Automatic annotation (TrEMBL):
InterPro entries: NERD, P-loop_NTPase. Residues 17-132 form the NERD domain. It comes from the Bacteria. Pfam families: NERD. The lineage of its organism: Bacteria, Bacillati, Bacillota, Clostridia, Eubacteriales. This is NERD domain-containing protein.
């Protein structure tokens, strides 16, 4: 193959001199033979200037700047003076490296396999470059303060040097991908698979479309999914009512009308589930190529990643880490300050803003999001009052907290659970009675047949040593494996220490897992996030997850490990501390509410292995 260049010329946003210069060299230089080059591809509301891909060499993301750095408005460290004299940090290195991180961690399933093979080295499969068309190398490096960054700084001289095929390239200056014949990361074709996946995503290919029939919606779900232009609505529903399904169908209905759609969640892991659900509900399309709209018109993010995308696209410095106190409000304030004096980019304006698990959001966040709403479609929020585990309260029904959002009238409500088996619904009510919980009644779907392949167990257990406890857990997994594949089994935990030990037990036995924990038990949010982006369905792995992070998911087989959230393991012995009864109920309720029947047989199971003697009485409810 010579090269393939996918141009994306927009007459309303013409190319800069620097972009024209680069494109000309990409087109003519023999250095770029074998490469696929995308100009300003659209990927989940992000628009890098260029993405270069080669299955043997790797991926390069390039951001182009035609800035004249000799002007006095540019200051070292990435600062630009505004009209009012205030300095704004617009360091393009931050922008391009954030593109890399979000693309790797939210768009590519094969990133999971590369990261497991090469650990942190796998980040080298994508290299980042900032090209300054009107600056010297000295000016560019000084402006970016790039001495300790992985991102390469290129100027016109670099492009001329690279384009001459007779010149030997320096990997540290010109990227490893262009310098080496073949990347060491292409072990067993892993890099090639990653490149293929990203290429398919950028081309809006159907490579990952499973030919599943779209799920047929009930009358109530269809009513929710119907487009109601010019509205701002909220709709509550019990567990299993089909809120996520209705949201996905609404998104599909909108993008088929060429509307721009944004779906937001609070839960990082839920994003992958919603992406697959939208793909399924879209179907094969009414004409060839219609499924391209799933990429060009649809953005699915968890809320904090969306804030990052806003800052990246507008080159706003991200100055607060996610472990800072109240970082969410700080990010919102920074963005609001920018918007006061600047225009929001068109690719960040949406006709439909759809929010799942709305009880985890806050009223202030919705008021903030309205700035990105075109008023051409609707803002629609679904929520479940019974799953407010982040203690935000039912803000969405509080008249003070919903001021200036635009809701009219009372919230809608779905009381019937279409997914939860009748037996699970009955058990949930019995357990609520045991805990004296007054909550909205869940009504089962009485039009479905009861399955004869159902299992609900409450096992009161005790263990002195960690090994004894892990043996008990493994026995239950082995029992389920007799009639289920691993991908249909999920272990939910109330405690990260317990979750980590379960992960280690199965991985030591050669069983691959998807999990959400910091395996070093340091409660490092970065390490947790690093696992959460890998947590996806359809990988054929045993899933091990906190009950918090499994909200919105569903599976035929749940095993809940009910122990104190403060449980510790010291030299193989178990030590339990105090716990809050509300947290215990939340764990039981949310875990039970994630059960779904198998589509072919109706089979399902829920097992609770209880290590809290105070709740041994619950066993009688399951008899």
């Amino acid at each position: 193959m010579d090269r393939e260049i996918i141009e994306n010329f927009n007459p309303f946003d013409p190319r800069t001199e620097g972009e024209e210069f680069l494109l000309r060299h990409f087109t003519t230089s023999p250095r770029f033979k074998g490469w696929t080059i995308f100009e300003q591809p659209h990927i989940n509301s992000m628009k890098p200037d260029f993405i270069l891909l080669n299955p043997d060499k790797g991926i390069i993301i390039i951001e182009v700047k035609d800035w004249n750095l000799s002007s006095d408005i540019y200051e070292n460290g990435g600062y630009i003076k505004g009209h009012n004299g205030n300095k704004i940090n617009k360091n393009p290195i931050n922008q391009v490296e954030n593109y890399k991180n979000l693309i790797l961690k939210t768009e590519l399933i094969n990133s999971v396999y590369l990261s497991e093979m090469f650990n942190d080295v796998f980040f080298g499969c994508v290299e980042t470059v900032v090209y300054f068309h009107k600056a010297t190398k000295f000016e560019a490096k000084k402006f970016c303060n790039a001495s300790n960054k992985h991102t390469k700084i290129w100027t016109k001289g670099d492009i001329d040097y690279i384009s001459n095929i007779d010149n030997k390239l320096n990997a540290f200056q010109h990227t490893y991908a262009l310098s080496l014949i073949k990347s060491k990361l292409n072990h067993n074709g892993l890099l090639a698979e990653l490149v293929k996946e990203l290429t398919s995503n950028l081309q809006y290919s159907d490579y990952n479309y499973e030919r599943k029939q779209p799920i047929k919606l009930t009358y109530e779900q269809e009513k929710l999914a119907k487009l109601q232009k010019g509205s701002i609505r909220r709709w509550s529903g019990v567990a299993g009512a089909g809120k996520s399904l209705s949201l996905a169908q609404k998104a599909v209905n909108a993008i088929k009308e060429d509307k721009a759609v944004l779906i937001l969640t609070f839960n990082i892991t839920l994003r992958h589930y919603l992406r697959d659900l939208c793909s399924q509900q879209f179907g094969i399309g009414s004409y060839k190529g219609e499924r391209k709209k799933l990429k060009s018109n649809l953005t699915i993010c968890h809320f904090h990643d969306f804030l990052k995308i806003i800052m990246m696209e507008h080159e706003i410095e991200i100055i607060h880490d996610e472990d800072d106190d109240d970082f969410t409000q700080k990010w919102i304030n920074i963005i609001n300050l920018y918007i006061q004096n600047n225009t929001i980019k068109n690719n960040l304006k949406y006709d439909y803003i759809l929010i799942d698990e709305g009880q985890d959001f806050q009223g202030e966040w919705i008021r903030f999001l309205k700035q990105f709403f075109t008023n051409e479609g609707e803002i629609f929020i679904v929520y479940d009052k019974a799953q407010d585990i982040y203690k935000h309260g039912v803000w969405i029904e509080d008249s003070n907290q919903i001021k200036n959002i635009g809701f009219r009238g009372q919230p809608g409500n779905i009381k019937v659970s279409m997914r939860l088996p009748q037996k699970i619904v009955s058990l949930v009510q019995d357990i609520r009675n045991e805990f004296n919980i007054d909550a909205e009644e869940i009504k089962p779907n009485t039009n479905t047949q009861q399955s004869f392949i159902e299992m609900t167990k409450w096992i009161n257990s005790s263990a002195i040593t960690m090994i004894e406890k892990l043996d008990q857990i493994e026995n239950q997994v082995e029992f389920l494996k007799e009639t289920n594949v691993l991908d249909d089994i999920t272990i939910l935990t109330t405690n990260e220490n317990t979750g980590v030990e379960i992960v280690k037990r199965f991985e030591n036995k050669g069983i691959k897992t998807s999990h959400v924990y910091d395996k070093e038990k340091q409660k490092d949010y970065r390490k947790r996030r690093n696992e959460k982006w890998k947590f996806q369905g359809g990988t054929g792995r045993l899933k091990i997850c906190s009950y918090h992070s499994y909200k919105g998911w569903e599976t035929p087989n749940i095993i809940l490990i009910l122990d104190a959230p403060s449980t510790k393991y010291i030299e193989g012995n178990i030590y339990e501390g105090e716990y809050n009864e509300k947290n215990i109920f939340d764990a039981i309720f949310i875990s039970m509410s994630r059960v779904k029947k198998k589509s072919l047989t109706g089979a399902y199971s829920f097992t609770c292995i209880n290590y809290l003697s105070e709740y041994n009485r619950i066993e009688q409810v399951f008899d």
